[in-house]
Amino acid sequence: MRAALSTLDVARPRDLGHALELLHASLGDGRLVPLAGGTDLFVTLNSGVVPGRRFLDLWGLRELRGVRERGGRLVLGALTTFSEIREHALVRRRYPALAAAAAEVGAWQIQNRGTLGGNIANASPAGDSLPVLLVLEAVVHARSVRGAREVPFTALFRGYRDLALEPDELIAAVSLPPAPARAKQFFRKVGTRRAQSISKVVLAGLLRLGRDGRVDLARVALGSVAPVTLRAGRTEHALLGARPSVAAAAAARAALLEDIAPIDDIRSDREYRRRVSGNVLEQFLRVAEPRFARR
Amino acid sequence: MSAVLTLDLKVNGRKRRVRVPPMKRLLDVLREDCGLTGTKEGCGEGECGACTVLMDGVPVNSCLVPASQAGGVRIVTVEGLAKGPALSVLQRAFVERGGTQCGICTPGILVTAHALLQRAKGRVPGDAEVREALAGNLCRCTGYQMIVNAVRAAARETKASARRRPARAAKPAARVKVKVARTKAKAAKTKAKAVGGRKRAGR
User: Fold this and answer.
1) What ipTM does the predicted assembly reach?
2) Residues of chain A contacting B, Cβ within 8 Å
3) What's the whole-model pTM score?
4) Residue B72: its chain A contacts at CB < 8 A?
5) Domain residue limits at A114
6) Domain of A137: which CATH number?
């Protein structure tokens, strides 16, 4: 049953400042629902669920567009689409895991409309870009009439679809620090098919060996295996200082099962997700460092 | 009282003014307010691609686009591919190679494939490239092989006719008409030479 779209209203702000004022003013009387590319929102509306009666159309706000460098960081406007991300030369060179994730969001049509800010704001535990932003230690730049605020990605997810953002705040941009030098980046999404599927398991990782041949940097994040996208702290701890070997990979895999808490749902079940998460972790380790396959 | 938006659309090169609710789906604006029923609704949730149209040259699912975001955007629907009664090279390839069966997915697939060929700029995209571009267009009849074949055949034909065009331009009768194409072809040739030269010099 589709929602009665003809009864819904849209506020079309002139600029970001205007948008923040409108959002702030709406708090007492049915908060405006931010609308960007619509690829999540309209799926909800078309299924008959109405998250609000009035929407705040951000799509025309130029301040939220574009990718630029600022003080060594790469700043991606909240409205940057996944097509723009996957095609961007700097993203591809410095953050190949993010380019890889963007290329696996939905399909071409969705990538042309789906935005990085929208993927974050939607806060699905299955969001494809989120594990990558976690391992790259991205920062969310939030704006409100009260000013600007930075929220580190590692502190962003408070609970299931619950972000550490205030009701009058909008995501204006996401910035990335320089990727750790010489660290291998990895992204893998496991779904029912290569395109258009919501992930059963999604994993992003960074790995680097020190001069002594031991792991000196390990970051692992997963989606679809817990109420929130999470950093696998125990796994990272098990990897740090380890000498790459089959035994080290097995120890990391065992630790991973302590990090994740997958459930049975429409897309997959708990056991499958536990098994596949471990498989994908081992794949990441072997791809990043072939000695993880040696005895 | 529901809100109504006056919207100036540019669909298939034609300007249209419509008065619609701002959250009305572009799909419904095209079908109901513009009378362009070539664009189909399949799933209504951005999975199947039957409702694909181009916005400023790139494919989107029109079931996920609010009318409020369509003003001033160049929109191309399947009706915009043919020139009057003459099918496009791509459409003819679908007919000739069995790229269509029940037909519900065909308008969306044609529009996505059209965008792919535009992006390829005369290059013939490989099998994997066509399949990735069309991954958001589901077809329950053909098994996709004949669709991929049709898209690549159209690309080959377009490429071959682009090569023939400069020769035809030499005929006095056609000279004026194809002047631009001729100049472009020349420019492309010169550019290709320059790139090749650089590459060799770099080795």
Assistant:
1) 0.93
2) 2, 5-10, 12, 35, 37-39, 42-43, 45-47, 55, 57, 59-60, 83, 106-110, 112-113, 194-196
3) 0.90
4) none
5) 65-176
6) 3.30.465.10
- pLDDT band at residue A34 using 50, 70 and 90 as cut-offs: very high
In this structure, the answer to whether residues A93 and A164 fall within a common structural domain is yes
Q: Does domain B1-78 have CATH number 1.25.40.10?
A: no
Chain A residue numbers touching B59 (CB-CB < 8 A): 108-109, 112
Same domain flag for A268 and A220:
yes
Q: How many domains does chain A have?
A: 3
Instruction: Decide if domain B81-187 falls under CATH 1.10.150.120.
Output: yes
In chain A, residues with a C-beta closer than 8 Å to the C-beta of B64 are: 37-39, 42-43, 46, 113
Answer yes or no: do A86 and A139 share one domain. yes
Residues of B in Cβ contact (< 8 Å) with A83? 58
From the list A10, A110, A196, the residue facing B66 with the nearest CB is A10
What pLDDT, on a 0 to 100 scale, did the predictor assign at position B2?
62
Domain ranges for chain B, please list them.
Answer: 1-78, 81-187
**H/E/C letters for each residue in chain A?**
CCCCHHHCEEECCCCHHHHHHHHHHCCCCCCCEEECCCCCHHHHHHCCCCCCCEEEECCCCHHHCCEEEECCEEEEECCCEHHHHHHCHHHHHHCHHHHHHHCCCCCHHHHCCCEHHHHHHHCCCCCCCHHHHHHCCCEEEEEECCEEEEEEHHHCEEECCEECCCCCCEEEEEEECCCCCCCEEEEEEECCCCCCCCCCEEEEEEEEECCCCCEEEEEEEEECCCCCCEECHHHHHHHCCCCCCHHHHHHHHHHHHHHCCCCCCCCCCHHHHHHHHHHHHHHHHHHHCHHHHCC
- Same domain for A278 and A231: yes
In a shared domain, residues A192 and A267: yes
| Whether residues A145 and A240 fall in one domain | no
pLDDT tens per residue across span A47-86: 888 889 999 999 999 999 999 999 999 999 999 999 999 9
Residues A119 and A199 in one domain: no
| Per-residue pLDDT tens listing for chain B (203 residues) | 468 999 999 999 999 999 999 999 999 999 999 999 999 999 999 999 999 999 999 999 999 999 999 999 999 999 999 998 999 999 999 999 999 999 999 999 999 999 999 999 999 999 999 999 999 999 999 899 999 999 999 999 999 988 887 655 444 444 434 344 444 444 454 444 433 333 333 32
Which chain B residue has the Cα nearest residue A42?
Answer: B64
Inform me whether the pLDDT recorded for A206 exceeds 50: yes
